[in-house]
Amino acid sequence: MGRNWGDALRLAARQDGVLRRDQALAAGLTTWQVRHAVRRGLWSEVFPCVYRVAGAPWSRRQDLRAAALWAARGAAVSHGAAASLLGFERYADAAIELSVTRHLRAPPGIVVHQVGRLDAKDLTTVGGIPVTSATRTLLDLAATEPEDMVKAALDQALRRKWTTLDKLDVATERAGWRRGVALIRALVTEYRGGNGPTESELESRVRELLEQAGLVDVERQRRVVIGGRVRRLDFRVTGTPVLIEADGYAWHSTPEDFERDRARDNALIARGYRVLRWTWAAVRDQPDVLLVQLLETLRRCAFPAPALCLAP
Prior knowledge:
Elements: H1 3-14, E1 18-20, H2 21-26, H3 31-39, E2 43-47, E3 50-53, H4 60-71, E4 75-77, H5 79-86, E5 97-100, E6 111-114, E7 123-126, E8 129-132, H6 134-144, H7 147-159, H8 165-175, H9 181-192, H10 201-212, E9 218-226, E10 229-237, E11 242-247, H11 255-270, E12 274-279, H12 280-285, H13 287-300
Parallel strand pairs: 5-6, 11-12
Antiparallel strand pairs: 1-3, 2-3, 4-5, 7-8, 9-10, 10-11
Helix pairs in contact: 5-6, 6-7, 7-10, 8-9
């Protein structure tokens, strides 16, 4: 193999093991050499005119890179695939989706969304792959995904500071009234009213479970003063002394964390509160049991909720 082969292979190495036909030709290979590489099994066609070099380790990002190379100009990885690249927790295995600004007939394995435009503020890159920004991705998910998935994604994006409520306001104004915009606007309005995003995936699951059970009158992330210190309560059923703490190991993994949480529980119980701790395993495997216990606790709490000293 000569220098031209080396240039093509180095380019593929920088692109997760894939390259496009015109890139190989630009590196100096001939059409015959490209066909020869495919016939000999040195390269395999992933999508039309996009090849994977033999021996290159497969990865999810490789497939997304190959799809972006196939679509080329005016295209970006989007929707669930963008969420996967950006790190949204529930989209690791999402289908390959692209937003494109021109008509393209998608090959098997790619879902194409033709859009009017993709502005620079709608785009970013991940490892050199063009992808819709977190803000634009949330709008796209709102148009195609169930509401609970959109809420969880929005929670994570706000928690990780991948977007802001102000950016979402601007994005929805620019988007007009296309599908999904109304949901994002409603969620932004809800969060601006103080019912802010949860701080963990477990809290997102707890919220979904409560909503599915019809318990929508629940306060989240209420800041209170306990023992002279500002604390945050995960969930409180409004007007009752019943509190639910999302008990994730990652947030309570040291002896100091354990002691601090027990002390806080004791202070709340001393004031008349009932504290239920819901773990990840219980939410995942025994949601009905948790709801039965919650409803029984609410039934027994026929007295007014004690007053809390709210933090400013």
